């Protein structure tokens, strides 16, 4: 796997800087020189099978996205907090839950997006960052917690994608439960990082090759 090959040629020091292991006595390369070489190695994609049947159930599942209707949209929004920080649209989720006209408009947008992702305006993928005080009085930057507020449509799109991918990986057994970070009620970023680090560490000590799977969404 390209990621494993790249990690075998490069290392990360304690300060988070990237360096390339060299022979004893040789001078180390600056991070700015190493990063393009690392990225170039990852960009050379390995050959993959085009079969989308039982050999690649995850790819096949992408063709089976659930139908998006008003009820499913309201169900997804119902899981969110009513008055959480709204995105650039400025509309709290409370109105999406209580006013069906909002849900109908979002449902129509989602169906257009699933058929043609380019139909979404660029404003959907933009957000704003607000500083929420952690302590009172908040006098310095360390007393605030940054929160990124995204549009409701973006939140629903990401939820639909995670629902499909999560159901596929869990139901088909593609990723064993002890190798997943998307556990129910355990989705904190810090805990997921610690959990993933522990799993990869155990697999490395046992000589088992890991297969990382990551779903990334564009954020502002």
Layout of strands and helices, then pairs:
Blueprint: H1 2-9, E1 11-12, E2 18-19, H2 31-43, H3 57-61, H4 70-78, H5 93-98, H6 100-115, E3 127-133, E4 144-150, H7 152-171, H8 189-205
Antiparallel strand pairs: 1-2, 3-4
Structural class: mainly alpha
Assembly state here? single chain
Number of strands: 4
N-to-C order of helices and strands: HEEHHHHHEEHH
Query: What helical percentage do the residues reach?
Result: 40-55%
Strand arrangement, largest sheet?
Answer: 1-2
Residue-averaged pLDDT, rounded? 64
Distance between the termini: 29 Å
Uncertain runs are 45-55, 186-191
- Count of separate DSSP helical elements: 8
Structure characteristics:
220 residues, mainly alpha, two-stranded antiparallel ribbon, 8 helices, 8% strand, extended
Describe it:
The structure is a single chain. The chain has helices at residues 2-9, 31-43, 57-61, 70-78, 93-98, 100-115, 152-171, 189-205, and strands at 11-12, 18-19, 127-133, 144-150. The chain has a domain at 65-173. The radius of gyration is 22 Å and the shape is extended. A two-stranded antiparallel sheet has the order 1-2. A two-stranded antiparallel sheet has the order 3-4. The chain has 220 residues and is mainly α. Strand 1 (11-12) and strand 2 (18-19) form a beta hairpin.
Quick overview of this protein structure:
This protein has 220 residues and is mainly alpha-helical.
């Amino acid at each position: 796997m390209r990621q494993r090959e790249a990690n075998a040629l490069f290392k990360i020091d304690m300060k988070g800087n990237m360096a390339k292991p060299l022979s004893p006595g040789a001078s180390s390369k600056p991070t700015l020189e190493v990063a393009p070489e690392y990225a170039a190695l990852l960009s050379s994609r390995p050959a993959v099978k085009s079969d989308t049947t039982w050999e690649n159930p995850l790819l096949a599942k992408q063709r089976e996205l659930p139908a998006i209707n008003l009820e499913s949209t309201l169900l997804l929004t119902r899981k969110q907090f009513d008055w959480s920080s709204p995105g650039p649209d400025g509309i709290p989720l409370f109105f999406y839950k209580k006013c069906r006209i909002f849900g109908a408009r979002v449902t129509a947008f989602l169906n257009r997006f699933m058929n043609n992702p380019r139909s979404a305006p660029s404003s959907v993928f933009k957000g704003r960052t607000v500083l929420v005080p952690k302590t009172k009085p908040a006098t310095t930057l360390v007393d605030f917690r940054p929160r990124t507020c995204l549009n409701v449509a973006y939140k629903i799109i990401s939820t639909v994608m995670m629902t499909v991918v999560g159901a596929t990986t869990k139901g088909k057994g593609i990723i064993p439960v002890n190798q997943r970070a998307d556990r129910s009620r355990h989705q904190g970023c810090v805990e997921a990082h610690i959990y993933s680090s522990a799993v990869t560490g155990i697999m490395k000590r046992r000589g088992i090759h890991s297969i990382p799977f990551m779903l990334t969404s564009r954020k502002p």
